[in-house]
Amino acid sequence: MTRTGGYSLTPPLPAELQVEVTGSCNLRCRMCLVRYAPAVGRAEGALSYEDFRDLVDGLPELTRLTLQGLGEPLLAPHLLDMVRHATTRGVEVGFNTNGVLLDRRWARDLVAAGTGWVHVSLDGATAATYEDVRHGGAFEPRPGQFDRVVANLRALLAERAAAGAARPVVKLVFVAMRRNIAELPDLVALAADLGVDELWVQNLSHSFSDTDPAGQYAAIRRYAARESLETDPALFRGSFDAAAAVAAARGVPLRLPRLAEHVPADPDRPGCTWPWQSAYVTHRGEVQPCCMVMGSDRATLGRLGAGSFADIWHGEAYRAFRAGLRDHRPADVCRGCAMYRGVF
């Protein structure tokens, strides 16, 4: 594709979609915007099943659906109905969860519903490190939470095996930070012991460098600056190399991110193609180009109710946003994005 001949500013409706089925969460993790924003109640944060169906049924070419956002999907009151509706349509559907609520009943229901993937966040190989990152609702470590999540993972894998199923694909997701990176090799070993399908390691998703240093994103911006591995990549390369060695020895599929910013080789390809392929819809109906934006006041391109998804997708705001990416003049919010900079 060339900059002039490809990447149309009005592409076909997407085959992929990410929907925040709830804005409510049971944790207050250090690296998540939920910690630094007003709490969202379970009732007010829920996307209605009717709005969900209207949205996905309006996308006839939809093949992949991710049911997650800033909230914890297992708090969504209609999650199983949403999964079943998607699978009935032949859409592959899954989500990321913190795993705290993922008990055996949830595991059995998700397997039976045909869930395509369940990714579970585990940001440490020990209780002390994990619980220091993933605080409870009182902004404090919750003793026993690490063991609970590990037990829930075992139950999910056991229910999948008991059903003789290959799905859901179960991955561990590790957000690499200065405070937990030393435990990555041990986490690979734990992943092997559990028998998960893959361990996905990612950097912090955004630097928030586009925001006012003294504004509403000040706290998470400071946290990202302190914890980012990009500040001294050489210091953390050893942990990545050690993790890769354990993964090779134990047969664990391991995905590692880059530690230094990467410039795509093709200058005619946009720095990010997400706005041509997918979209992110919040529980309030705000349509954004991706989930990496984090914050409805940043790059909201339309709102459902004021117009259809198709109207928004082909509207002027979306076209202008795509034009900036296509012509390497991205919106400021993209410049601090780990995916745009090639280090996610």
Sheet having the most strands:
10 strands, mixed
The fraction of residues assigned to DSSP E strands is 5-15%
Quaternary organization = single chain
Distance between the termini: 24 Å
Strand order of the largest sheet: 9-8-7-5-4-3-1-10-11-12
Instruction: Using the CA coordinates, give the radius of gyration.
Output: 20 Å
Low-confidence stretches: 1-5
Helices, by number, come to 12
Q: Strand tally, please? A: 12
Integer average pLDDT: 95
By secondary-structure content and strand pairing, the structural class works out as alpha/beta
SSE ordering: EEHEHEHEHEHEHEHHEHEEEHHH
Shape: globular
Helicity range: 25-40%
Give a brief rundown of this model.
The chain has 344 residues and is of the alpha/beta class. It is 34% helix and 13% strand.
What can you tell me about this protein's structure?
The protein is an alpha/beta fold and 344 residues long. 34% of the residues lie in helices and 13% in strands. The chain has twelve helices and twelve strands. The strands form two sheets. It has a ten-stranded mixed sheet with strand order 9-8-7-5-4-3-1-10-11-12. Helix 1 packs parallel to helix 2 and helix 3 runs parallel beside helix 5. The two termini are 24 Å apart. The N terminus is likely disordered.
Key traits:
single chain; 344 residues; alpha/beta; 10-stranded mixed sheet; two-stranded antiparallel sheet; globular
Topology:
Layout (H helix, E strand, L loop, with lengths): L15 E4 L7 E3 L19 H9 L6 E3 L12 H10 L3 E6 L6 H10 L3 E5 L5 H7 E3 L8 H18 L6 E7 L8 H11 L3 E5 L15 H10 L5 H18 L3 E2 L18 H4 L2 E2 L4 E3 L13 E2 L5 H5 L2 H11 L5 H4 L9
Parallel strand pairs: 1-3, 1-10, 3-4, 4-5, 5-7, 7-8, 8-9
Antiparallel strand pairs: 2-6, 10-11, 11-12
Helix pairs in contact: 1-2, 3-5, 6-8
